[in-house]
Amino acid sequence: MSDQPARPIGVVLAGGLGRRLGGSKATVRLQRRPLISYPLRALRQALGKAVIVAKMDSELPPLPGVEVWIEPDLPRHPLTGWVHALSLAGGSPIVVCACDLPLVSPALIAQIASTDSDGAPAVIARSEGRLQPLLGRYEPAALAPLAVALGGGHPALLRRS
Questions:
Q1: Long-range contacts of 21-30 (CB under 8 A, 24+ apart)
Q2: How far is CA 59 from each of CA 5, 27, 62, 131, rounded to the nearest angstrom?
């Protein structure tokens, strides 16, 4: 048994409907590449392993060699992806990144992944004083409270549905 903390698994969230974009965010092209390829690449470079969490009906571009974890159909909220990924991560933390963050860098991912959480269940990016929960590290200890919030339909969390 090792005293080393488990290495985080990179998780790209791709289960949203993309209503504001008129369709699947993952397949939108940016400089001839699918939007999802940018955060996926940053997570892989920083962490070594990255998976996609999506709904069964999510439209994804061809991404050879990338593992896709299929999350439950309902509710349609990013929290569903966090809970599903934590439940499949085998006790490892996850570093979550939304599929529509093409400018996220491997350096930023590495910084988030290595930031000491001081026992907190998550390390979340902040921009202009606001938390950005779609870019953060979630510890295995976050699974239970997130699942309770998801199952209880916590209004502050499910506002985006």
A1: 21/100, 23/59, 24/58, 24/59, 24/60, 25/99, 25/100, 26/52, 26/54, 26/58, 26/59, 26/60, 26/61, 26/99, 27/59, 27/60, 27/61, 28/100, 30/102
A2: 34, 7, 10, 28
pLDDT digits 0-9 by tens, 115-127: 988 889 999 999 9
> Which residue is associated with the tokens 């940053």?
42
The terminus-to-terminus CA distance of the chain in angstroms comes to 42
**What are the b/e assignments for 114-133, b being 16+ CB within 10 Å?**
eeeeeeebbbbbeeeeeeeb
All structural domains of the chain with their residue ranges: 9-154
In the CATH scheme, what is the code of domain 9-154?
3.90.550.10
Work out the number of other CB atoms within 10 angstroms of the CB of residue 23.
11
User: What's the one-letter identity of residue 26?
Assistant: A
Instruction: Report the predicted TM-score, pTM, of the whole model to 2 decimal places.
Output: 0.88
The confidence band for 158, taking pLDDT boundaries of 50, 70 and 90, is very low
| Sequential DSSP letters for 53-117 | EE-TT------TT--EEEPPSSS-SHHHHHHHHHHHTTT--EEEEETT-TT--HHHHHHHHHS--
